[in-house]
Specification:
The chain is mostly helical and about 100 residues long. The protein has a domain of about 60 residues. It contains one helix and two strands, in the order ββα. A two-stranded antiparallel ribbon has the order 1-2. The termini are far apart. Keywords: Coiled coil. Pfam families: LSU.
Length: about 100
């Protein structure tokens, strides 16, 4: 028999102790793994929420951009109409006889 910490030990109890320690180590690793998994799930949920917020913001920005583009086109058309009108008036005045 072997002596471990002042106690008699047989080879079978020694292997049992090794197995118990290995089992405890595996249980500890499993618990740590489960904690890591839970943290990763929480992080994934945070990322999904951030993605949803980003997508909503993108949609709003696209909508606002579309509205601004429509306004810019309307203003450009009005500017062109006004420029054409002023050009026509200037042309008419240049071709009209001047009366003093």
């Amino acid at each position: 028999m072997m002596m471990i910490c002042g106690q008699k030990s047989s080879p079978s109890s020694s292997s049992s102790e090794v197995l118990l320690r290995r089992n405890e180590e595996l249980e500890r690793e499993l618990k740590e793994s489960l904690v890591r998994e839970e943290r990763m799930k929480e992080e994934l949920q945070r990322l999904w929420r951030r993605l949803a917020v980003s997508e909503e913001a993108e949609e709003r920005l696209c909508s606002q951009l579309g509205e601004l583009e429509a306004e810019a086109v309307a203003e450009a058309r009005e500017y062109r109409r006004r420029l054409t009108e002023l050009t026509a008036r200037l042309s008419d005045e240049q071709h009209s006889p001047v009366i003093h």
